[in-house]
Backbone:
């Protein structure tokens, strides 16, 4: 098995089978709503992907029927348009499906990491998708869930995946019951009204997908599902500055009336016409498969086996998988993703997408353009090198602002003093020390302030014992101590400040078991919680509540990131970070749609909490600290520059690019934490310092950067 798989494949868990249906399992790729996906070897030694339906769903006749439909649909359409089905057993106690590997990222990942596609690439993408839909409709099927996450950008053209909800064109069993099937932002009006889906419904979804590829967002994007539905049914699509023939074709696909939408054959003809002003109408369903595939393979994907190169650490051979240098204007890399897995989308969730070389982008006329053509990128990011204040020997391990923004609370370690550990309150403008709440030999690991800033919670490590202290900020006294959390624990307040989440470990002799406990801040009573089910030496290293307080995101030391339903005490979503270690930082976006995860040795991850899709912020490498601005428009990422100094990247969430960097002067350092002031005008960045001679902790600094 090649290194390109080993680098992100997860080891098999205790209890996983050694083989399924004669296919030897070598590791885990990922998980989805219906099943677990493994990488395996066929009897002849070929790599395959093995999807196994979860036991709890295998007992459900509806899920088993859906899985059977997925297999049948993928087999009917054929390998040119989907991942080829190698083998399957839908009647097994735990039904399974084996498919080939497909090399390439999903369209969702590609646009998420590389920005909107150039018009010519959108044109070729549309021709390929239309050809795929022609094959699907030719089998008398309607896909019903075409979206960017279900399009794999393979080397020979796009592959349409996930046939888990595909139905015969004349089927009405689900729609007759008023069941809405699909993903709202890419659904046709008739689908959101729970009417029968028809082939023209897939054409509408294709228009949405092409709009997403061209602009970076769905043409009917809104802040809520009701808002999306309203726009789909009643409003025109938002296609940005897209113009000319391409805009006309996409707009035609998005007609509210199915009868007014073009056929897939007409879409292919219009998008591949040499004269861009021509409007040929093709009534026959035939498509030039060979010509379209060749054009897509050469002009569209442009991925190639090669190095995975960090833009900030290219001098470190640990992060370069071949001696080849990065391409001018961008980076290329190859990722293996599994296609045609209903409920899973692409395997190895979180594996990064290819970044398209900017020098190869073309405009609608075929003329080479700069990186600004498709992303509308402006000048290079501003570089700031003089913070408003630098606080030495400050609490940098964990930072938080008071609600009024005047005080910065932090925990830290001071090599020059004794006792060394402390909780410190500092003036958020001048950096001067207001008060030191605690000093001693206890190792403070994280802190949090409640909504009104009156209660401070700090997790403490004392040898192999862990506890949590509650402090009254006004009196600067400890009001409660909670014990029994193991040597590593983390704290986080709910948005209303009434509940404190505490992570801990149960010592079970030969391993730990990680749990999350919820306590009422007023009564100090345990009100809920959940057992994460993690064993071994895993710990919950970072936590964050969603803005509405309904969910809790947790990161762990074994690459897993989970989303928990607080009221029900259950895990509702999980992903495994590829090629990473501890999840050092977690932050919810203010709208609750995304979770940012910082971790060592990889680019930060953005996790869509509604779909489970992940993407990379490739501009920032080895960024462990993450924080969203209060308005959600900026994501701050704290990490290490290529010369080893501390650096903060400010990433524009909407335009998906770095707008500014902030450089420190610590040659030997490590990012610790980030915090925005409540008004978003100040950013605090905590940095750990290491001595040149021993590499041991040498204290910390906090830099206060003025943003406006």
Residues:
């Amino acid at each position: 098995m090649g290194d390109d798989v080993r680098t992100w494949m997860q080891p098999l868990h205790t209890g996983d089978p050694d083989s399924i249906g004669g296919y030897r399992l070598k590791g885990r790729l990922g998980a989805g709503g219906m099943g677990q996906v493994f990488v395996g070897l066929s009897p002849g030694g070929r790599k395959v992907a093995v999807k196994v339906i979860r036991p709890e769903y295998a007992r459900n006749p509806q899920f088993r029927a859906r899985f059977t439909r997925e297999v049948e649909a993928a087999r009917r359409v054929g390998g040119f348009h989907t991942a080829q089905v190698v083998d399957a057993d839908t009647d097994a106690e735990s039904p399974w499906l084996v498919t080939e590997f497909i090399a390439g990222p999903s369209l969702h990942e590609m646009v998420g990491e590389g920005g909107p596609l150039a018009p010519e690439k959108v044109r070729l993408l549309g021709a390929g998708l239309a050809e795929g839909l022609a094959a699907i409709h030719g089998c008398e099927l309607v896909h019903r869930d075409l979206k960017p996450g279900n399009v794999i950008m393979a080397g020979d053209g796009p592959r349409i995946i996930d046939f888990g909800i595909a139905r015969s064109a004349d089927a009405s069993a689900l729609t007759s019951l008023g069941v809405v099937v699909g993903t709202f932002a890419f659904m046709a009006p008739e689908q959101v009204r729970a009417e029968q889906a028809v082939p023209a419904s897939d054409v509408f979804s294709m228009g949405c997908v092409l709009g997403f590829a061209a602009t970076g967002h769905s043409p009917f994007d809104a802040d809520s599902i009701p808002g999306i539905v309203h726009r789909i049914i009643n409003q025109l699509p938002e296609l940005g500055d897209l113009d000319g023939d391409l805009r006309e074709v996409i707009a035609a696909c998005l007609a509210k009336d199915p009868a007014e939408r073009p056929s897939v054959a007409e879409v292919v003809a219009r998008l591949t016409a040499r004269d861009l002003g021509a409007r040929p109408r093709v009534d026959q369903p035939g498509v030039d498969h060979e010509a379209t595939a060749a054009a897509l393979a050469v002009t569209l994907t442009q991925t190639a086996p090669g190095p995975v190169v960090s833009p900030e650490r290219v001098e470190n051979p640990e992060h370069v998988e071949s001696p080849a240098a990065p391409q001018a204007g961008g980076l290329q890399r190859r990722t293996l993703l599994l296609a045609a897995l209903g409920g899973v989308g692409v395997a190895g969730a979180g594996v990064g997408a290819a970044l398209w070389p900017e020098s190869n982008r073309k405009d609608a006329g075929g003329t080479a353009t700069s990186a600004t053509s498709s992303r509308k990128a402006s000048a290079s990011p501003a570089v700031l090198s003089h913070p408003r204040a630098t606080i030495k020997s400050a609490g940098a391990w964990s930072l938080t602002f008071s609600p009024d923004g005047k005080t910065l609370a932090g925990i830290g370690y001071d090599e020059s003093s004794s006792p060394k550990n402390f909780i410190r309150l500092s003036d958020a403008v001048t950096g001067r020390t207001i008060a030191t709440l605690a000093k001693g030999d206890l190792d403070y690991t994280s802190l949090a302030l409640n909504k009104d800033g009156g209660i401070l919670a700090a997790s403490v490590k004392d040898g192999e014992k862990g506890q949590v202290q509650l402090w009254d900020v006004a009196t600067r006294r400890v009001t409660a101590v909670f014990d029994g959390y193991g040597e590593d624990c983390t704290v986080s307040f709910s948005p209303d400040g009434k509940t404190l989440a505490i992570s801990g470990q149960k010592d079970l002799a030969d391993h730990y078991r990680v749990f999350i406990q919820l306590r009422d801040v007023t009564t100090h009573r345990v009100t809920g919680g959940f057992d994460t089910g993690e064993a071994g030496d895993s710990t919950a290293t970072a936590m964050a509540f969603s803005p509405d307080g309904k969910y809790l995101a947790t990161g762990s030391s074994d690459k897993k990131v989970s989303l928990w339903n607080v009221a029900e005490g259950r895990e509702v979503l999980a992903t495994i970070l590829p090629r990473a270690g501890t999840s050092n930082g977690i932050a919810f976006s203010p709208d609750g749609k995304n979770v940012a995860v910082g971790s060592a040795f990889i680019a930060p991850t953005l996790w869509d909490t509604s779909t489970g899709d992940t993407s990379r912020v490739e501009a920032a490498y080895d960024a462990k600290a993450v924080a969203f601005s209060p308005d959600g428009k900026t994501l701050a990422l704290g990490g290490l520059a290529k010369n080893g100094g501390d650096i903060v990247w400010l990433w524009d969430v909407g335009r998906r690019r770095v707008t500014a960097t902030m450089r420190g002067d610590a040659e030997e350092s490590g990012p610790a934490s980030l915090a925005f002031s409540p008004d978003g005008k100040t950013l605090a960045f905590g940095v750990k310092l290491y001595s040149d001679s021993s590499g041991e902790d040498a204290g910390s600094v906090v830099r206060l950067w003025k943003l406006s």
The chain has three domains: 3-99, 104-308, 384-706. Residues 688 and 700 are 5 Å apart (CA to CA).
